[in-house]
Write a structure and sequence with these properties.
Layout: H1 17-26, H2 34-41, H3 45-55, H4 68-75, H5 79-108, E1 110-115, H6 118-122, H7 125-139, E2 143-148, E3 160-163, E4 170-172, H8 180-189, E5 198-201, H9 238-243, H10 248-254, H11 258-268, H12 280-288, E6 296-301, H13 310-317, H14 319-333, E7 337-343, H15 347-363, E8 378-384, H16 393-400, E9 424-428, H17 429-441, H18 443-447, E10 457-464, E11 470-475, H19 480-487, E12 495-500, E13 506-509, H20 519-524, E14 533-538, H21 543-557, H22 563-581, H23 587-602, H24 606-610, H25 613-621, H26 623-631, E15 646-648, H27 658-662, E16 668-669, E17 677-678, H28 688-692, H29 694-699, E18 703-705
Helix pairs in contact: 2-5, 3-5, 10-14, 10-17, 11-12, 11-14, 13-14, 13-15, 14-17, 21-22, 22-23, 23-25
Length: 707
Amino acid sequence: MRRAPVIGVTGPVASGKTTVARAMAGRGSALIDCDRLAHRALDDPLVKWRLVSAFGGEILTTGGRVSRRRLRQAAFADERALARLNRIVRAKIRSIISAEVRRARARAGAVICVGTGTCGIAAGARETLQAIEEEIARRNVAAQVVSVGCIGMCAKEPLVDIQMPGQPRISYSNVTADNVSRLLDSFLAKGQVYKPRLVGHFGTEAFDGVPKFFDHPMLAPQVRIVLRNCGMIDPENLDHYLARDGYKGLEKALAMPWNEVLEVVKNSGIRGRGGAGFPTWRKWLLCRENESAERYLICNADEGDPGAFMNRSLIEGDPHALLEGMLIAAYTIGATHGYIYIRAEYPLAVERLKGAIAGLRDLGLLGEDILGSGFSFDIKIKEGAGAFVCGEETALIGSIEGRRGMPRTRPPFPAASGLWGKPTIINNVETLGTLPNILRNGAEWYAQYGTESSKGTKTFSLVGKVRRTGLIEVPLGTTLRKVIFEIGGGLVKEFKAVQTGGPSGGCLGQEFLDTPIDYENLAAAGSIMGSGGLIVIDRDTCIVDTAKYYLSFTQAESCGKCVPCRVGTRHLVNILTKICKGQAELTDIAKLENLAKAVKGASLCGLGQTAPNPVLSSLKYFREEFLAHIMHKRCPAAVCRDLVVYRIIKEKCTGCQRCVQVCPTGAITGPRSEVHNLDKSKCIKCRSCYEICRFDAIAGDAIIIES
């Protein structure tokens, strides 16, 4: 990595620092007077308040400013007082200096940002990053290369942004190692904007015919609050977070009594983003009012829903948002110890969390007497083994305590008796990550978004058969239609349903497209918000098979403690398997429905109580598809292999040989430009031919189910 150098000049009084600095500035170097910048920190209102609280009002001048002379007299004579001063001003000074350094670097050369979240790495971002560094070294140019998180446009990764001095930051999609040279050549050698793969610029004014990045159809309807830093900053650089008002929310919280912070959270209307939607403030109050000398805070980062990656992406792109939120929550509930429970399958998120925690300790924002407030708090990371049931609060607590992760009966609730028998608050990543924004901007600001009962925004992983997949954040109350067809760009084939809430949610058909996304409306439709997974389904997806997939997942993840979940889910899977194989009878539908209701009503924890949701919602809205499997022995989506017989429609076959090339058994034969033949005795029903035939997508079924 090559970047514009930063040179520090230090020394005692009258040693010639100013002379040296002026000489370097005269040779074209950017001059940053750190002493002057440090003095600016004393004028910050929150810093001033902390200093007055620590050293008394006598450190102020008659004009209300901090007197450096009086502060020196109050703090420098005592080592502990000096340490307290450092804790109060260090973060602010570092933030100011860091911002100046970045501005100096931006003036000196290009800044190149590469998206290195898990989605970017999977798409080849590490190879792209290496190619950029090699190209910069070959050209011997000054440039700063920064790794950032995912900005949400996962389908366009690897994303690369370039900012030249005096120009806005410009973003490019699908930048591989092979096209890095052409991209950099355009900017660094020719001084021109590279037009291919262009996404947009991050400026506020029009620029050289380049569209604005956030005017992109996927981004324009979004409101980025918790995701505001993702893709914009280096998640491994604390200074980047501080430069974007990081820990300002914590500073404000520490300047208030805990009950006033609680009131701000209450007035904001934020509800738990883990799925249940319980008012955050109410849970906190129950914990705080519990008479206990010790309380705990746990962040539930055990994101286990298939297709969900909201928490992982936030941690990878902005770990300090979570940590600042934990500090605010801990201060409010009176906790001194915190845990982040995160699955070990998230190695990059774990790595960035560990680095962020270490940086906080170095800066005095974690540990004893944070910012001189008297508030102490520390965080440990607990890596889980990937058990889905450990997303349930009491099972998660058991896992941290070293026991098998199994739910227990409630009450008592964790807010009264949780970790080690002490009052414990468990919040999800998104809930905690949102708190700094609420404290920084105010409850009324946050409450302007959303609906009357569901305030604020919600992140979703938008995946499945939608054109534009990725991570999105929208105000609660946004309709499913807007998310799928405006933000997601619609589907290639006909829309069939959307699965909300993951394995605990339900499938909602076309009649629900205008349903506002909030806790109450989704529950009324027979689904749930869940943690935020949205899986879009088209006509080539079998609803029965989908329900079986989710039931198989929850059955495999059941801890086995209670009979309704352990045995009931297994019987549900068996009935669904019979239906998919064409072996079921009409009476099996009633059995399926009654058993699902029994499991839902009698299971111990949320996993078992919500496991039947995909079955019940599918039976309610897609019963005719179940009947087709049972009565006609036919799978309308051509997914259930035992019910599918493929044949070639001679009138539509063009002899393109695409199906011949993908057939693993040689069942399809025929020369180019002639109608092909399908040998049913060799066909293993892998569906490859069905999916690759382009004429099926545009002109009807080229390869269909034989009636």
